[in-house]
TrEMBL record:
This is Dienelactone hydrolase domain-containing protein. InterPro entries: AB_hydrolase_fold, Dienelactn_hydro, Dienelactone_hydrolase-like. Transmembrane segments: none annotated. Residues 65-284 form the Dienelactone hydrolase domain. It comes from Rhynchospora breviuscula. GO terms for molecular function: hydrolase activity.
Length: 287
């Protein structure tokens, strides 16, 4: 498992050529956690009978990908980006919740893995290892443009872990994005420089997150320093007593987090983060 974690580090979290020290710290952290994991499997929410999502297809360049849309037409749009698991029950839970915040949003989840879902850690590692990050940014851009072409006057992007890193990258690389909220993830320097952001960014991190250089407090502070050099509004929030993926609060999500050694449960932090999310998107996506 440690070998897989090293490959994951090099090709996904920190992209093509991270510094050896950062690679070593993050690889050791991820390897220790993965070595403790007992594989568990969950049924995707996509198979549930009460699925509220409309499945659509979006074209970009010479490829087509599936996306899942929930919320009222004509509302501001928010592209919701998956964790390394793929389009599973948890990211769909987030999208449904987002669609009901404030005056309502039209939430869209692009399927960055093209129909594949990691049902245990090894599968998720394999899928994330093979992700084309530049291609994923193009998927995000196509998703933003689809929402704008289909009635959403303004569109934001949010994401979690892998999706958090991609959401920050979209603020730099996708000019059509109007606002970003990122959860526990920062992009590699090879993918994008947050100092060059063109859309407002709000970011959330857990104080106990130990994915060094990607989503720990050091990464949060580094992101904040870079955003100070940008020309966009920004906020960086760190939540005491919270570990990685602290927003995942469903029974299945809590079970999965505990299997990975994350035993914290903090409903107050989750509610505060959602409140900040709602205020930020409401501020920048309102007409």
């Amino acid at each position: 498992m440690a070998t897989a974690a090293t490959i994951l580090l090099r090709r996904a979290f920190l992209s093509s050529s991270p510094s050896p020290s950062a690679a070593s710290r993050f690889s050791s952290s991820l390897a220790r956690r993965c070595d403790r994991i007992t594989p568990i499997r969950f049924r995707s929410m996509a198979t549930a009978s009460a699925d509220p999502f409309q499945k659509i297809q979006i074209q970009r360049d010479d490829t087509t990908f599936d996306a899942y849309v929930v919320g009222k037409e004509g509302a501001p749009g928010i592209v919701v980006l998956q964790e390394w698991w793929g389009v599973d029950f948890e990211i769909k839970n987030h999208a449904v919740h987002i669609s009901k915040l404030g005056q309502g949003y039209r939430a869209l989840i692009p399927d960055l893995y093209r129909g594949k879902v990691g049902l245990d850690v090894a599968e998720a590692q394999h899928l994330m290892e093979g992700l084309d990050w530049q291609g994923a940014v193009k998927d995000i851009q196509a998703s933003v443009n689809w929402l704008k072409a289909n009635g959403s006057p303004k569109v934001g992007v949010t994401g979690y872990c892998m999706g958090g890193a991609l959401s920050i990258a979209s603020a730099v690389l996708v000019p059509e994005v109007d606002a970003v909220v990122a959860f526990y993830g920062v992009p590699s320097p090879e993918l994008s420089d947050p100092a060059q952001a063109k859309a407002p960014i709000q970011a959330h991190f857990g104080e106990l997150d130990n994915f060094v250089g990607f989503s720990d407090v050091t990464a949060a502070k580094s992101l904040e320093e870079k955003l100070k050099n940008s020309s966009v509004p920004y906020e960086v929030h760190v939540y005491p007593g919270c570990a990685h993926a602290f927003m995942n609060s469903s029974p299945e999500g809590l079970k999965r987090r505990k299997s990975m050694g994350m035993n914290d449960e903090n409903p107050d932090a989750i509610n505060l983060a959602w409140s900040r999310f709602s205020s930020w998107m409401g501020r920048f996506l309102s007409s």
